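Reviewers of the previous submission asked for a worked example of the structure-prediction workflow described in the proposal, so we include one complete record here. The input consisted solely of the amino acid sequence. No template or homolog information was supplied to the procedure at any stage.
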Amino acid sequence: MRARSAHINLAQFVSALFFACCSQIATAAESSFYSQCHKLLPVANEFARECQQRARSFSRTFYPGGGTRGEVESYSTYFRPLDAPSHFVLGCVLDFKHKINFAGLYYTAQPLDMSHFDEYKIVFVSPDDAVGLEIEGVQNTLVPVRQFVTDIVPPRLTGRPKNCEEHIVETTKEAVATGYERIRQLADNKFEVCHGIGGDNYCARHEYSFFVEKHQAPVVYIFDLDSLFFIDGNGAFIAKEKFYSSSCRWKKDSTSVINVIHEMCARPNQSTEEK
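From that input alone, the workflow returned the following structure tokens.
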């Protein structure tokens, strides 16, 4: 009986040790995007209420089609201070009725903790919830990369990934992308970009440039418009080479989300690692 008890205890110990070991490996392998998401999602409702109380307003006049008749766009935005700088920060945008348009994770090429958000000049808030902030005289575009959806935070776009869902868009050695829009890194700086489901697929190959970090984590966000840029789970920014080259000839920043590509012109290319 005593020998059997010792055998059971040994088995339990080995099982617990294996679980702890595997848990540590999984935690260590988790990208900064998912680590931040799992940390901040539980406070989404609290943040939504905080946003409606502390958001700063911003308005601009928009001229559709470059015409002379202007339309006023009014939004409010807020970013919560974090305990450490990160590429992925918690932010929100409210519409002109002060209702939540978007609440969730934003990407910033320059890691920020947003403790000085109230001091930053708001350069723009776009209809797609991107935000431009001037920080120390430099424009920084914040890209909304993952919406939080709760009982008080409505979905911004249905059918898009929400909360901390694992949305596989990049085929790597460890996983095969299955979504409508999929990418796969080829040799050097080329990516194959595919759209479609089942037998109805369209694929093309393009050259991309790499910035901010080395591309070592799977991509978590693809900008829909012509796949102009990707963002991976550790903050690497991957821009379509042709558009990046032309944007570097712009003489000033623009007030839209694609300005984030223009901001890469002052940054060095990062070496790549085949996925």
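The chain has a mean pLDDT of 86. We consider this example representative of the routine output the project will generate in years two and three.
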